[in-house]
Amino acid sequence: NWQHGTFVGVTMASQRTAAQLGKLGELRRDPMAMLPFIGYDMADYWGHWLEMGKKIPNPPKIFHVNWFRQDVAGKFMWPGFGENMRVLQWILDRCQGKAGAVESPVGYMPTPKDLYTEGLDIDEAAMKELLTIKPADWTDELASQAEFFAGFNRIPEAITVEHEALKKRLGM
């Protein structure tokens, strides 16, 4: 739903690149990729987006993709580049009710049969791993989110509700 999608946007994180200040590879939280551009309080900004969801008759669906998931050897599991179109196609099909999904603790996800994989250079085990949510892998993520939220004077209640609901869905 919109509230969950706003929470996903609020908790966005990525590794720093050479184009950003800070230690290369360090995780940085950048809500909705807007932190450097916000001229007012982030809680108000997040509240604005939460309110927008109540005002828009048919709010757009929100999807979150981790293109950079790595295996135990530190190698990217998804081939990237042009292959990203496969996931984008699933998103478009999902919006049109033509693709399935399974519910996970972090939201709805495609199944291997829902993604067009013909000619894709990825083995079945890696695909299964990409589409599996392991609660233990989210322990650090939840702690990082909580640490991030602690840096603000106030957080909209809906965001706190979503954070607690995620913890509960993950069994934490």
Descriptive notes:
The protein is mainly alpha-helical and 172 residues long. It has six helices and four strands. Helix content is 39%, strand content 7%. A two-stranded antiparallel ribbon has the order 1-2. The chain has a two-stranded antiparallel ribbon with strand order 3-4. A hairpin with a 2-residue loop joins strand 3 and strand 4. It is globular and about 50 Å long. The model has no long low-confidence stretch (mean pLDDT 90).
Oligomer designation = single chain
Average pLDDT for all residues:
90
Structural class: mainly alpha
User: Roughly how many Å is the radius of gyration?
Assistant: 17 Å
Counting DSSP H or I runs of 4 or more residues, the number of helices is 6
N/C terminus separation: 22 Å
Provide tags for this entry.
172 residues; single chain; two-stranded antiparallel sheet; mainly alpha; globular; 7% strand
List the helices and strands and how they pair.
Blueprint lengths: L1 H9 L2 E3 L11 E3 L12 H14 L28 H12 L6 E3 L2 E3 L14 H7 L8 H12 L6 H13 L3
Antiparallel strand pairs: 1-2, 3-4
Give the gist of this structure.
With 172 residues, the protein is mostly helical. It contains six helices and four strands; from the N terminus they run H-E-E-H-H-E-E-H-H-H. The protein is 39% helix and 7% strand.
